[in-house]
Amino acid sequence: MKNVSIIGSTGSIGRQALEVVTAHRDRYRVVALAAGQNWRLLLEQIVVHRPQLVAVATAEAARQLDENLPPGTKTEIYWGEEGLLACATCPEAQVVLTAVPGILGLSPTLAAINRGKDIALANKETLVAAGQLVMEQARRRQVAILPVDSEHSAIWQCLDQKPAATVAGIILTASGGPFRQAGIDLHRVTPEMALSHPNWRMGKKVTVDSATLFNKGLEVIEAHWLFGLDYQQIEVVIHPQSIIHSLVRFVDGSVLAQLGLPDMKVPIAYALSYPDRLPGVSPAPDFCRLGSLTFEAPDRERFPMLDLAYQAGRCGGTAPALLNAANEIGVEYFLTRRIGFADIFRLCSQVMELVPSRPVSSLEDIMLADKMARAKAGELISSIIH
Ligand SMILES: NC(=O)c1ccc[n+]([C@@H]2O[C@H](COP(=O)([O-])OP(=O)(O)OC[C@H]3O[C@@H](n4cnc5c(N)ncnc54)[C@H](OP(=O)(O)O)[C@@H]3O)[C@@H](O)[C@H]2O)c1
Questions:
Q1: Which atom of ligand 1 has the smallest separation from the CA of 11?
Q2: Is the CB of 320 inside a 6 Å radius of any atom of ligand 1?
Q3: Distance between CA atoms of 148 and 171, rounded to whole angstroms?
Q4: Which end of the chain, N or C, is surrounded by fewer C-beta atoms within 10 Å?
């Protein structure tokens, strides 16, 4: 029996993780759950899974939850930053699934690592902002960072402990998002258009990041840290069908790929069950019905966020944290219709020009960079608003 804590249990990844856990109750027990505002769904999850503790984002959500808990429920309720940390460090948890979006995931992930918990990592922004700190701390505490992102799960499965010297590089696949086809004027894109992803149903932030291709940029930096690869070893290819989840190139010219239907339950289940595999998580693709699998180069001019991420990754220090923070602000402003879709790049590139990158030696360095980038983005936004 493995005890699991899920941070972001009411979100896209969190709900699918609970489906996996519910289908395998003989293997997994939920000990802690953290959500944001959706206390009603969290309440349903408490009734089903009876965790020892839960957390919500605000005191008000905690009050609502407390008033509506069925009599006799023993679950403790926390809220705010303290709540996230309580879920991450719950003494009984063996593995913590981090599935909140953005920099919010960083402190709980580090806290869980410090308590020796394995991490099933969906929150890619954690490695983007603080890859070196997180990986060093994980090595020191001998905890596993188990990728949940489908691309990194694919690479992990293909690498399967093969000697590093045999690996020439990796190829991350990207669906290309809803605006892949030239002809769509990116200056006229609305939040509704950006939120309709062709293959995946995900949270809003990651869906907009997929539409700008910044999600792939975040994944490039995530892969750099997870697999210890140089940036020139990490390629991106557009594969609109999302059947090949990523590939590894070996020095002899051979390439291994991991395939499956676009279903996040597969990488979630693999992270939770590794090195075992759970039966019946998702049907395998029917190749006779699939038709063709196609590939093309990303359009780096239409989607400049991809190269901005490469630049930040290569620059190192606090540069990826700065870019991540600027993008979080940009996406929020785009979703609330205060800036246009193409302005997300303008905002991010200006923040990168104006806020210098610094070396990183502690979590405080990262959090300061995050704060400075948000402040600069806030200042710049008035010159961008139409
Ligand atoms: N979805 C995917 O297919 C996918 C694939 C690969 C990687 N990822 C990564 O996984 C992470 C989560 O993505 P998602 O799509 O699952 O996001 P999502 O659907 O937006 O869910 C976000 C979760 O975080 C919770 N949350 C938000 N703010 C919070 C706060 N202040 N305190 C506590 N909890 C808070 C939300 O709670 P409420 O809803 O209750 O407010 C929800 O449970 C992201 O880093 C994303 O890049 C996602």
A1: 21
A2: no
A3: 17
A4: C
Cα(209)–Cα(221) distance, integer angstroms: 14
Beta carbon of 58 within 6 Å of any ligand 1 atom: no
Give the model confidence (pLDDT) of 14-65 as tens digits: 999 999 999 999 999 999 999 999 999 999 999 999 999 999 999 999 999 9
Give 34's strand partners.
Answer: 7, 55
Rounded to the nearest angstrom, the gap between the alpha carbon of residue 210 and the centroid of all alpha carbons in its chain is 11
Q: Are 182 and 302 in contact (CB under 8 A)?
A: yes
- Which residue, judged by its Cα, is nearest atom 30 of ligand 1? 36
What pTM was estimated for this model as a whole?
Answer: 0.97
What is the Å distance from ligand 1's center to 331 Cα? 14
Four-CA torsion 151, 155, 160, 164, nearest 10 degrees: -150
CA angle at residue 252 from 246 to 253, to 5 degrees? 45
Give the pLDDT confidence of 56-104 residue by residue, as tens digits: 999 999 999 999 999 999 999 999 999 999 999 999 999 999 999 999 9
Query: Is any atom of ligand 1 closer than 6 Å to the C-beta of 268?
Result: no
SS3 (DSSP) at 245: strand
CB of 109 closer than 6 angstroms to any ligand 1 atom? no
Q: Which atom of ligand 1 is nearest to the CA of 13?
A: 16
Q: Give the distance (Å) from ligand 1 centre to CA of residue 9.
A: 8
Question: Measured in angstroms, how far is the CA atom of residue 182 from the centroid of ligand 1?
Answer: 30
Nearest by Cα to 118 from 4, 14, 278, 21: 4
List, in order of start, the domains of the chain with CATH numbers. 2-147 (3.40.50.720), 149-262+283-311 (no CATH), 316-386 (1.10.1740.10)
